[in-house]
Amino acid sequence: MKRNSVYAMSVPEFSKLIAKIKSIHASICNDIQDSFKIPEACSIWTNRQVDKKLPYQERHVLQQASILGNLEDFGVLKKSCASSNAVKHCDSNRVCENDNDVSAVVEFGAGRGYLTQMLADCYGIKKVLLVERRAYKLKADRSLRQKESLTLERLRIDIEDLNLNRVEPLQGVAYIAIGKHLCGPATDMTLRCCIREQCCQVIAAEAQDCFYFSGLAIATCCHHLCQWKNYINKRYISDLGFTKEDFHVISWFTSWAVDADHGSNFSGTECMTQQEIMSEMKEFALDSEVRGVGEIVRDMQPIDRAVLGFMCKDIIDTGRLMWVKARGLESQLVKYVPCSISPENRLLVASYKKRS
Fold first, then answer.
1. Per-residue DSSP letter, 138
2. Domain Methyltransferase TRM13 spans what residues (predicted)?
3. Regarding beta strands 346-352 and 213-221, do their DSSP bridges make them parallel or antiparallel, or are they unpaired?
4. Fewer Cβ atoms within 10 Å of its own Cβ: the N or the C terminal residue of the chain?
């Protein structure tokens, strides 16, 4: 459906939209920093000192470690078991001593739960809530349940139906939200779930200074699945001058981000000058005399398609970032791993700071 919308466009409409995307990206998405953080606390995983029965894929371990490293760097997690003796204190059957203000985690789109497994191994989390609507085999649940003093609950539920205020294990407990497999609209649903509950808590508990939601880290992915009805910051898209139909085209363009070779020299996005954008529009205008949009798309170089795809991802994620900031959270959008590890490498990190 989205693809058909693109191919139904005239060449002038297509070229104008691409020029607009590139111009907007250059103006509002130019501060997404590289933030590949491998914390010392995760050394038992990165050095392969965990239980041999646990699945180990270096690419996934590096992604998980960097998500936690960014939470630590952002002040949501405190360093814990971060010493050369960490493995003595953090093995697969024990929980390290918890120096964190945060004692619980909610992992959205948890899948098998191995991001939370690393968090529990390395940071001493005491309560775990795994939210996932599908059933999985080979889950981390068995290993997590073997940890002393750790309580685990797995909720099989759609995120849009979840009310965290009604989850008994989270009552009166400081918690963080994490997610590594939140495809498309699942990211928007998670933000709405967490921060809606957060706002309710602020109203009800601010006077008692007993605020529980501490922060989040969400690795955004699969932007081609995003839908207008779920997107969390429609006003931002409209203020940029995009329509609902433009949003669906932009979300389809994001699938191009995985087209190219994501080697060590691939930067992901490159800002273009206004002069370069206008020159490209002139080339499209000449093409319109002999070719349609479908032919132009098929003839685009993979690297050019990938760069445009990343720009569209950034525009969508920047809207999410701005929505979170508008609700009083300190937040950043970063590239948490190099493209050579995963082209799905944007991470939204946020923390709630109590008023002094």
1. S
2. 62-350
3. antiparallel
4. C
Q: Please, are residues 280 and 7 in contact by the beta-carbon 8 Å criterion?
A: no
Q: Tokens 């205020």 identify what position? A: 165
The predicted-structure confidence for 4-36, as pLDDT tens digits, reads as follows 888 899 989 999 999 999 999 999 988 899 999
The residue to which tokens 């050394």 are assigned: 43
pTM for the model: 0.87
pLDDT class for 79, splitting at 50, 70, 90? confident
pLDDT at residue 268 tops 70: no
Both structure tokens of 273: 């000058």
Q: Name the one residue in this structure whose structure tokens are 């814990």.
A: 80
User: Does the pLDDT at position 65 exceed 80?
Assistant: yes
User: What is the pLDDT at residue 95?
Assistant: 41
Please give the sequence-ordered ranges of beta strands (E in DSSP) within the chain, or none if there are none. Answer: 33-34, 104-108, 127-131, 151-155, 175-183, 213-221, 329-335, 346-352
Let me know how long the chain is: 356
How far is Cα 103 from Cα 90, in angstroms, rounded to an integer? 16
| Residue at 330: amino acid letter | E
**What is the separation of C-alpha 56 from the centre of its chain, rounded to a whole number of angstroms?**
22
Nearest to 94 by CA among 152, 149, 138: 149
Q: Rounded mean pLDDT of the chain?
A: 84
Taking each helix axis from N to C terminus, what angle separates 302-326 and 185-205, rounded to the nearest 10 degrees?
10
Helix/strand/coil (H, E, C) string of 139-185? Answer: CCHHHHHCCCCCEEEEECCCHHHCCHHHCHHHCCCCEEEEEEEEECH
